[in-house]
Amino acid sequence: MNLYIYSSILVVGAIASITTAYIAWKKRPATGSLFISILMICISEWIICQLLYILNTNHSIKFFLHEFKYLGAVFTPIVLLMLVVEHTDRKNLLKKNIIISLFIIPIITLIIIATNKYHGLFRQNIRFVDIGGVELIFSKYGKWFWINIVYVYVLLFKSLLLLVLHYMHSPKLYREQTKIIIIASLIPWIYNIAYLLFFRPKMSIDITPLAFSLTGIIAFWGVFRHELLDLSPIAKDLVFESIEDIVIVLDMSMRIVDINLSARNAFEVNGDEIIGKPVKEILPKWSSLNNDKGEIDFNVGSLVLFISQQERHFEVRSTLIRDKKNVKVGHVIILHDITEIKKIMWEIETSRIKAEEANRLKSIFLANMSHEIRTPMNGLLGMIDIMELSKLEEEQRENFGIIKASAESLLLIINDILDYSKIESGKMSLEKAEFNVKKLVENSVRIFTVKSDEKKIELICDTGKEIPNLIIGDSLRLRQVIDNLISNAIKFTPKGAIIVKLRGIRNSRDDIILRLVVKDSGIGIPSDKIDILFNSFEQVDSSTTRKYGGTGLGLAIVKRLVELMKGNIVVESVIDKGSTFTIEIPFKVSNNIEETKMTDKGYELDTRDWGKINILLAEDNKVNQLIMKKMLQKKGLNVEIAENGKIVLEKLEEKLFDIIFMDVQMPILDGYEVASIIRERNIDIPIIALTANAMEGDREKCLKSGMDDYLSKPVMSRNLIEMISKYL
Known about the structure:
Radius of gyration: 50 Å
CATH architecture of the largest domain: Up-down Bundle
Number of strands: 23
Distance between the termini: 131 Å
CATH class of the largest domain: Mainly Alpha
Structural class: alpha+beta
Shape: elongated
Number of helices: 25
Helix content: 40-55%
CATH topology of the largest domain: Rhopdopsin 7-helix transmembrane proteins
């Protein structure tokens, strides 16, 4: 071969090798890229030394370059073997002790070459021969040269054998790539066989480095042509074989590229059998693929699979894989077993249902308890109400006052417990009706005037001029909040004054925020105790309960009622100087000009002739019959008693009544059934329900059955008169 042509080929080979090494280095950490880069660096060194050896004319430098090329030559087969080992996933051959053993003979070879002049083990009879105007080195090869050659061929043979075995056992998807690398590995074999059989007598130049350069370039092209090794290592980095989740790696054609151990065990398949097959073979729900965009439809957020004949629930997660050019190359699908979570959620749901059932039973229990407690309370307070209207001596009136206060205190405790239970169970709803908030606050303050006078405390009411006449909301619950705050202030204020201030902040023509401030000069609250102030059944300290009494529910109910009305409450307090409670609640402003005329005690009573009014009292309890009959008769009303629902219907056939007070719980026919029958008969008469339940939904149930209104026991005489005035 012409030496200048050969030199030109070496230049091209060197450039190609260096370029390939650089590109492979940039593609790391893709499988094989690092070893390809090192392989091409070794080959580049080999080629460059060979090129400079031919072009140089100085014998010493020429000899040095001729020997120095072996630095790349002896390591090239080892790096090629490592590339093959990594490609064939034989990681057990990349252990540290094995790698060190592979480098023993090449290092000995380099030492022998460096010291060859002392022993001649590598080459003998070295001389320069002029060939075509270029001086080349000729020599006789020593024993170690042939040992090195045998070692090189053993490494090349091992590489080729691993590739062939890998090809035989690889999935179809990988075989084409492996085939290309096998062809690349055969090139040094083909050249050496041809050289020994045909070219050796005719060729004076070694072109082995060019053969290895071609091997490296073809191997590089084979590794990165299909980008399989760009996809696989990324997936391997994301998913380890030991991960418990099922992991499936797909290419953009929805073919399975890899699956982990958990997936193989779950689907009972061999990895080699499933690689390259469509994912729909193991997951039929994922057979949809948008080929235009190359995107998989992963709308299935969860999946149910039968594994080992057991139903398992999986959460589906997918990760898009992109190569270094940001091109989509595949997907990693992760199936996370949520069977146990589903089981826990089912148990939680079961517990929730049981809790709701327990809450329902609690509501029934509270309703029954309310009925049982309120029935005797109705008798007690009703009789007190009647007796107070009698002629009593001063001592008797004082004693009745004590009894009445105790009974009202007991009723307040009962109401607090029932109200709190309703709030806690989420069964308290708010009414929306027009009311005069100024009068509501003033009336509330007026009621507590007696108590404040007894303690010689000044009780001041201050309502702002900006407050509208009518607002829309639940006056009963707002009154409950105000009463609780004033009652609380009086209880904990031994002397001084209590100021109840009402102000309004207009957001718009139809919206207003009411700000109610209750300020006292009482005992105050420690700053570290304010946080527990609104806790249920808890007071600032135990001595408070002993000294002042109470359930510890009042402020808890206030806070929850305020929050139920979309408001907030703030407390400021200083020990021995007093406390200030500020609430802000939004309300709608009514556009009506007229309002229902009310007195301090309720509806304005007229001066009609009460003796002409006939009332039917449907009540099965003898005590309640007696008390309510006396209450009504003291006003001059005509009252007839019906012990059960059947008698009510019989009396309506015999006589006309102006109004019916109907207990809802009666034998034979209860109040709901009787009211429905009356309405079915088109009898137009006001029916007022009497119930001791006072639970959420009772009012709605009464109205639904055909009743007109609702009174909760215990019933005071003024409540009965107000209802009569309202409907007659």
